[in-house]
Amino acid sequence: MQKRTNLRSDLNKMKLSKRAIFFVIGIATVALVGLSVLQVQNLRSSLTTNRQIFLQKVDLASSKISNAFANDNTYTNQLVRAATWVRESGELNDPKMDRQMKDIINPIFEEAGLDIPYEYAIYMHKKTGDGFNFVMGDDGASLEFELASCENPQERGHGWATLTCTTAFDHDNSFHLALFFPSQDAYVFAQSSGALILSVVFIVLLIGCFVYTLIVIQRQKKLSSIKNDFINNLTHEFKTPIASISLATSILKGDKKIDKKKKSNYLNLIELESKRLEGQVDKVLQIAMIDSGNFTLEKKQLDVHEVIQRVVESMHLVVSKRQGTIDLKLNATKSEVLADGTHLVNIIYNLIDNALKYTVDVPHISITTYDSSQGIEISIKDNGIGIGEEIQKYIFDKFYRAETGNVQNAKGFGLGLSYVKKIIEEHKGRIGLNSQPNRGSEFLLYFPFS
Asked: Which of 65, 165, 423, 428 fits a disulfide with 176 by CB distance 3.0 to 4.6 angstroms?
């Protein structure tokens, strides 16, 4: 009853934990969206403010240009002559007047802080007539068009945004200066680039932190699930041999008249199950040592063929119990490598043991060696259930155990292949896999000679 209560309490805690995680994610999402919206609004406000500042600078500069013309009456006659020359020559402007215009405009723009390309055009409006007549403009600017009004530049149907007009230059005619800024939007945007960059950086940082947090939470949940599975598997793997040892010990202690044969069988069972426990503990300890970095290989010259034959002989009884076979094709002409004997034995043992565990029918295992230019290649092939392509990239992960369908004897911690891969990599080798569901698996190993 107490156990059931504790289990229910643990489940409730897990539900609360999940709710808390989703609540935090929800709050973080709202905060992120809210901050992003605020940043966008701030950026729009910055653009609007900078555009207003730009227009104010243009108005101030236009007034100064107008005053410069108004204070020098000689410009009227020069403009009239320039208009006549442009009309007769068919050109866009009078070079002499163009230089004078820029000599006036450029210093005023520089003083106003208007570091922006501009184009200009001059129009004449007769008081007794209607409309505006083009006089001259920037060389090559193609600004010769009919101007309907000096008040609203949009009436021109032109894409440039700003038009400013000076006061009249003489009594009979009005000369108007139109200033155009083709890159006005880019200029205003550049003035807000600092705020834009900061906004983008902050938003990216927020999104990055948020995504990273979600990934960490997901990984922690997955790791927690994997560890729970590992503990369950560990308990199950230890429980069976411990129960067998306990039962055999009880029988030996309780039955004083047990015959020698039975006694020998029970003692063999105790020894076998003890070795099984020892093997499982060693496997966990080996992975722990590798992960901690407190791990060194004791390498020496070994004959891979001898190691394979030794492992196959040690597993002969297990294979024969299932009426299986292990076919050896040791074709490599050079089979000596610099390796750690204990770990090399464990690698071969683990792969053969996996082949047996994941084979439903009578197991047939083929072990073949090949020559390689710098080492030896080993193929361990079985007729087991195979591995789907979608999970092949996970099988070397620590604690990972794929669904085994109707394979009832596939016990373990999900450490074997992880251990195999780590040890092979420590030997500067590599491991690969060819497999399809229901068509068996082939593990391909490579070990360098040194």
From this structure: 165
* Extended strands (E) in 256-316: 299-303
Q: CA-to-CA distance for 203 and 104, rounded, in angstroms?
A: 45
If you ran DSSP here, which 8-state letter would residue 71 be given?
Answer: T
pLDDT band at 408 (very low <50, low <70, confident <90, very high): very low
Return d(Cα 143, Cα 335) in angstroms, integer.
86
Q: Where in the chain is the domain with CATH 3.30.565.10?
A: 296-448
Q: Per residue in 116-141, is it b (16+ CB within 10 Å) or e — as a string?
A: bebbbbbbbbeeeeeebebbbbbeee
Report helix angle 260-292 to 416-426, nearest 10: 60
- SS3 assignment, position 419: helix
CB 151 within 8 A of CB 176: no
Q: What is the pLDDT of residues 194-211, one digit of tens each?
A: 777 777 787 788 778 878
What residue spans in the chain does CATH classification 1.10.287.130 cover? 223-291
pTM (global) more than 0.85: no
CB-based contacts of 396, cutoff 8 Å, min separation 6: 417, 418, 420, 421, 431
Report angle CA 384, 385, 389 to the nearest 5 degrees: 120
Run of H or E including 173: strand 173-180
| Crossing angle (nearest 10°) for helices 341-357 and 416-426 | 150
Model confidence over 266-310: pLDDT tens digits? Answer: 787 888 778 777 767 776 776 677 666 666 788 999 999 999 998
Which element (helix H / strand E) includes 13? helix 2-70
Q: Which CATH number fits domain 296-448: 3.30.9.10, 3.40.50.720, 3.40.228.10, 3.30.565.10?
A: 3.30.565.10
What CA–CA distances, in Å, run from 16 to 13, 19, 187, 223? 5, 5, 54, 19
Give φ, ψ of 94 to 5 degrees.
Answer: -95, 115
Give me 39's structure tokens: 């940043």
CATH topology of domain 223-291: Helix Hairpins (1.10.287)
Question: Distance between CA atoms of 94 and 208, rounded to whole angstroms?
Answer: 59
| Contacting residues for 293 by C-beta, under 8 A, at least 6 apart | none
